[in-house]
Amino acid sequence: MIIVRKVIVLVNTSLGTDGHVAEELRKIEGVKEVYKVRGVYDILVKIEAPDPDKVKEIISSKLRKIDDIRSTITMVVTNDGISALA
């Protein structure tokens, strides 16, 4: 059984560069979804990888190397979803 590690990364970009950064993020292997958001952070990224070492490689060797990324926060997903309460 293959376990896929899922993480959410919140990205803060330099002013006015969120569109360019989002396009660069979409090119990275393992990046499954990219959303421009409003608030403290500019972009939300969903990454999937087969193990924690691959996640670390994607974030530190690829994602954080993109010009205009000022900071990131990484959150490890612990389950595949929670049903919303009605």
TrEMBL record:
<dbReference type="InterPro" id="IPR011008">
    <property type="entry name" value="Dimeric_a/b-barrel"/>
</dbReference>
<protein>
    <submittedName>
        <fullName>Transcriptional regulator, AsnC family</fullName>
    </submittedName>
</protein>
<dbReference type="InterPro" id="IPR019887">
    <property type="entry name" value="Tscrpt_reg_AsnC/Lrp_C"/>
</dbReference>
<feature type="domain" description="Transcription regulator AsnC/Lrp ligand binding">
    <location>
        <begin position="18"/>
        <end position="78"/>
    </location>
</feature>
<dbReference type="Pfam" id="PF01037">
    <property type="entry name" value="AsnC_trans_reg"/>
</dbReference>
